[in-house]
Amino acid sequence: MSSLQQFRDSTRAWLEENCPPTMRTPMVQDEIVWGGRNAEFKNPESKVWLQRMAEKGWTCPTWPAEYGGGGLSKDEAIILGQELARINARPALTSFGISMLGPVLLEYGNHQQKAEHIPKIVRGEIRWCQGYSEPGSGSDLASLKTRAELQGDHYLINGSKVWTSYADKADWIFCLVRTDFEVPKHSGISFILFDMDSPGVSTKPIQLISGSSPFCETFFDDVKVPASNLVGQLNDGWTIAKRLLQHERTMISGFGLASGQSDRGGTTSVVSSLEGAAMHYRGDKDRLSDPVLRDDIAQFKIDSEAFALTSQRSVEESKQGQGPNATSSMLKYYGCELNKRRYELMLRAIGSQGLGWEGDGFDDEELQITREWLRSKANSIEGGTSEVQLNIVAKRVLGLPDLLTMSNTKGPKG
Amino acid sequence: MSLVLTEDQSMLQDAARNFCAQHSPVSVLRRLRDEKDEKGFDENIWKQMVELGWAGMALPEAYGGFDFGYSGLGVVLEQTGKTLASSPLISTVLLGATAVNLCGNEEQKQALLPGIVAGEKLLALAIDESPFHRPSEIALSASKEGDHYVLRGQKTFVLDGHVADQLIVVARTAGNISDRNGMSLFLVDSKSQGVSIMRTNMVDSRNSARIDFEGVRVPAENLLGIEHGAYEALERVLDIGRIGASAEMLGSITQVFEQTVEYLKQREQFGVLIGAFQALQHRAAIMYSEIELCKSVVRAALAALDNPESEPIEIARLASLAKAKLSEVFELVSNEGIQMHGGIGMTDEFDIGFYLKRARVAQQFLGDASYHRDRYATLHDF
Predict the structure, then answer these.
(1) Which of A142, B147, B174, B262 is the most buried (most CB within 10 A)?
(2) Residue of chain B minimizing CA distance to A337
(3) Quick one: closest CA in A to B292, which residue?
């Protein structure tokens, strides 16, 4: 028996024994485990599941065992993924530490930084947030103005961030700061980590059109951060920032992938597929009676399936060569546009029942669709707008010339 | 199922790319068109393709083939699509040989397949009867009279119908026009009495024909497959054809796109390269994304054909997925190719127009995007 087959057998046996029963049911939004100092476990089995998975390092299967990761090869990690999918296991831990910070810290961090932070990410002990966008720096992220001045053994940080996801719930932040105002804008940025409990840090949630407040404004007022918290070289933060964005895009493009089994994640209700919802709400039996909607849904499903195959191909190709690359921009662009299309079609599928805001007359799922539809509009804005992704594809992949960099590379005067 | 080419497939791809670039560039198609070539393809080039093994690519070794699978044939078709290489690969190898191999009895296979591999026999599949692809609506009738069938009716858009030695004719032996039961396939010698073939000159300079069958007597042993029950096998043959045609379209799409992006990096207006304009950059980036999806779809569909565990419905879904997606993207890319080239794209001297013309014919061939979206929806029970 090959060692991979052995690995599959032992993994399957371990999962059978250790994955609690309710962890094999579709994930419910408010039972997602984000970890952190104030971690909430709505379902007590989530805690057990996290502890068992973290002990093996399987929350981060391919990360080095030296830092608490699973130490698995890519092939083993694929098998683990397949075995988890086989029993419909929920993710034990979802976090920006896993999907964004960890990979770049492993690539650019020094030993001490990795030893301090990686094991806590694996175990879900620290919840991270991302300090990137600023009020004046959205798509033009590199124009950011949050200032970090070296004063002896620490930096003094002043400025503000916006669209910081879950900043009010996070323990630590990975943050882009300007450490040089006299050089072209991309060359004066550094990447630094600090505790959100530090004096001078404050957050304020932003209410969105969907009614929820997943994002915050974040303010830094003379925040003292040890100089050793700077990752990589001083003023070379943009390299790390871009790398992290590739990981973020890969994560967000996954939103467009949900259509494999169902069009709205793992649920099994009448609205789990677009065509099922459309037929159910119209009372159709064998064939969707609205021919235009039928064609649009077919087109959507064709594009979704083609996109899922492309994500799969991208994984296979990156396995043979490099990690995420400029194609992550293409996947981010396409996946987000697909997800928005999905929700527009869902509204058409269920008519005015998909337009309730709250209260009687609508069931929970219908109300959730309204909110999710509104939430989906952010997909093509966060993590770099669709337009920014198309710029990246045009320049990095297609090699088309750049008008902007010729005129607009000067650093902003703080 | 892997979506990345194997080492063997990559080598085949390189060889096919070099061959098409050297021996069958677009200028060959241009010459065939300008000289109103009787056959519509260059026999010497076809001979060389045969020597390279392309005519037996997907056939089993028992019949002289090379057992390289449809993934292998697809790799070749992608490259012939790049240069619009004219050959009987689609009519004879992709459709004809597949029909004989899937539906024929041992005797028929022995009689035809080795000849196809050797490039000695040309086949054509006669199916469409109207300007639209409707394989479930067949009117051409075959009535049994003694030890013969007598065929009456008309076929159109028969690819390579004017040069084929044998026609594979989809006929009705029972039932009404739209019954799926009651269809049969026949091997008909194109020289048979009562067969009249009119070559139709299509806009893309590929060759097709309209064929009349006026009381054509066909020996009963020329029945290919099950009498009355050909539909299921026919769908498989068509699905293979759709997937292979999608691979060919992928090559053409890629070529138009690469040429267009190259042009954006050369053409200057307003003192800058036009490729620096965001209005063009975003459209190019969107095309790039769509083409990446096309590549994955074609690879997945070809791989499914070569996987013995694939269910027929899986193949059918992937075939319609591929044909719908590739048809849509070929329309987009061929139109943008012309537009982004500006005035020069409208000249006959420039090659891009050939691809626009091929695009529309390829889109219609074996069902256009809306046909396949409808079929995809039906196959997904909605």
Answers:
(1) A142
(2) B286
(3) A310
Q: Look at residue A28 in the predicted model and tell me its pLDDT.
A: 82
Give the C-alpha separation, B215 to A356, whole Å: 66
Q: Using an 8 Å CB-CB cutoff, list residues of chain B that contact chain A.
A: 2-4, 261, 264-265, 272-273, 275-278, 280-282, 284-286, 288-289, 292-297, 299-300, 321, 324-325, 370, 373-374, 376-378, 380-382
Q: Find tokens 């013969």 and name the residue.
A: B148
Contact criterion met (CB below 8 Å) for B88 and B165 = no
Distances (CA, A) of B131 to B127, B156, B207: 11, 8, 16
Q: What is the pLDDT of residues B287-325, one digit of tens each?
A: 999 999 999 999 999 999 999 999 999 999 999 999 999
Cβ of B4 within 8 Å of Cβ of A316? The answer is: yes
What is the model's pTM? 0.89
Contacts of B29 (CB under 8 A, 6+ apart): B84, B85, B86, B205, B354
CA distance B299 to B309: 17
Helix axis angle for A44-56 and A3-18, nearest 10°, is: 150
Q: Report the number of secondary-structure helices (H) and strands (E) in chain A.
A: 13, 9
The ipTM assigned to this model is 0.95
Closest-CA distance, A205 to chain B, in angstroms, reads 34
Q: How far is CA B348 from CA B29, B240, B352, B357, B359, in A?
A: 13, 33, 8, 11, 16
Residue type, A125: E
Instruction: Please give the pLDDT value at position A260.
Output: 38
